[in-house]
Amino acid sequence: MCCVENFSDELKTTIRDNLTRICHGADLASRSSIMFKYAATLKSFWDRYSTKEDKTRIGMLGELLAHVIILKKLDSFDVISPLFNMEEKHIRKGFDLVLYESASNEVWITEVKSGGAGTRTSCAATSALLAKARDDLKGRLAEAETNHWHNAINAAQKSINESKGYKESVLEILGLEGDNAYLNTAVASDNNVVLVSALFNDATRKVEEKTVEHFTNKLIANPIFKTVLVLSLQKGTLQKLEDFLRTEAGC
């Protein structure tokens, strides 16, 4: 669980330091081209963001926040998929994030669901977001749809720095899952998953630990996936994050 109580200088610095890696992936972010530097990446993000409807904007900021928290707080994982979809000015299709855990040599498929609370409590809203992430990923991982895995492989190829020794291992794992989809033998229980709720709601109305614990325990008792990690994120509003990105982009 992670609650962003203040839009601190530390958070701003983290976004500045990692935005190119988050948006383009580690390999492209390491290139010397101006188009992969912070200013150009920020402009590209804002061009994508500013033209979208509110629901998509909330999803984009939720995914951005998930990238930042995972990079900074979950040291055992490498993010091996970029935020940007290279084919069009949109967020990534298929799986929201793909993570790699070197200790186990396993891939983790990540689904992020973002939203506000509305008239619900923070706990009720978080439970609903996590349930939607669970159900969407359960369906997608069992589909006879190879495009999800094509996208994941292409993302990993562009994202993982060539110096990383695990690149071929990751591509092989993703390829095997793609084969299962093609053969119509894909099942959700073959996959490690991370379910993320990104709630934008008053930080004084915090999500209670027992809410996330209850959701996780139910999922463990009736397993759908191979292994699951549940991550609850909460930020007061999306306005300060949006204002920061707008100001940084000079818009």
Q: Can you describe this structure?
A:
- This protein is of the alpha/beta class and 251 residues long.
- The protein has one domain.
- Helices cover 50% and strands 18% of the residues.
- It has helices at residues 9-24, 26-29, 38-50, 54-73, 122-141, 147-159, 167-182, 209-221, 239-249, and strands at residues 2-4, 77-79, 84-85, 90-91, 97-101, 106-116, 192-200, 227-235.
- The strands form two sheets. A six-stranded mixed sheet has the order 1-8-7-6-5-2, sandwiched between helices. A two-stranded antiparallel ribbon has the order 3-4.
- Strand 3 and strand 4 form a beta hairpin.
- Helix 1 (9-24) packs across helix 4 (54-73) and helix 6 (147-159) runs antiparallel to helix 7 (167-182).
- The longest helix is centred in the first third of the chain and has 20 residues, at 54-73.
- It is globular and about 50 Å long.
- The mean pLDDT is 92.
Tags for this model:
251 residues; six-stranded mixed β-sheet; two-stranded antiparallel ribbon; 9 helices; globular
Query: Quick one: how many beta strands?
Result: 8
Distance between the termini: 33 Å
Q: Briefly note the structural class of the backbone.
A: alpha/beta
What is the C-alpha radius of gyration, as a whole number of Å? 18 Å
Average pLDDT score: 92
Task: Summarize this entry quickly.
The chain is of the alpha/beta class and 251 residues long.
Write the layout of secondary structure elements.
Blueprint (H helix, E strand, L loop, with lengths): L1 E3 L4 H16 L1 H4 L8 H13 L3 H20 L3 E3 L4 E2 L4 E2 L5 E5 L4 E11 L5 H20 L5 H13 L7 H16 L9 E9 L8 H13 L5 E9 L3 H11 L2
Parallel strand pairs: 1-8, 6-7, 7-8
Antiparallel strand pairs: 2-5, 3-4, 5-6
